[in-house]
Amino acid sequence: MGGNNTDMFDEPSYLRSLRRNGNKQGKGRNRGMKNGGRAGGRSDMMDIIHKLFDNRGSIMREITETPDGVTTYTHSDDDQVANWIITHVKQMTSLMEAEKGIRLWDDLFEKAFEYHNLNHLTFSEVEDGVTVTHEVNHDVEGQARDCLVAIIHEHSSVVSDFIQRGSDEAQANHAVPDICSGM
User: Fold this and answer.
1) What is the span of the domain harbouring residue 48?
2) By CB count within 10 A, which of 128, 134, 144, 160 is most buried?
3) Domain count across the chain
C-alpha cells in the first residue's frame, strides 16, 4: 500500500508500528538511572508513595493542559515532602525508561504504559518540588494523538486525585478516555 490513502489508515496498526519501531525520543534527563540507582527499587518506590499519601495535606499541584499534554508544578513548603516529590518523579521516570510499568491492574495506567514510548517526559527540580512537562511525540498523528493527549491529561488529573484523596483513590480503577475506544 503506499501513498497518502488516509481512508485505509488503521490507527491501531499505526500505534503498533510506532511501538515496534521504538519511537523513543525525548526521554527524561536522568536516562541512565535504573532501579538500583538513585531512584531505588520497588520497595523504595512504595515507601515514598506512602510517605506522600501520609503528607498529602502539604502538597500543592498546578496543572496546565496543553494541546500536546501537560505541564505540572508539584511542590511543598515542607523540605522533606519536596524531596519525596522529586524522588517520586525520578522513580516513575526511571520505570518508564526501563519499560517497567506500575499499577498495571488500573485500566488508565495499563493503557498509558502500553503507549509509553509514544510520549516523552522531562522534569526540572526546583527548590520546593518539581516541574514536569509530559507530551505526545510530534510524529504521532490523528486519533492516536488525540487518545494519547487524553491519556496524559487524565493521568495528570488522577495524580491530583491521589493528592486530594490519598490511598482511597489509589485503590480505584481509572477508565481510559472514551476517545481511545478501539485502540
Assistant:
1) 27-180
2) 134
3) 1
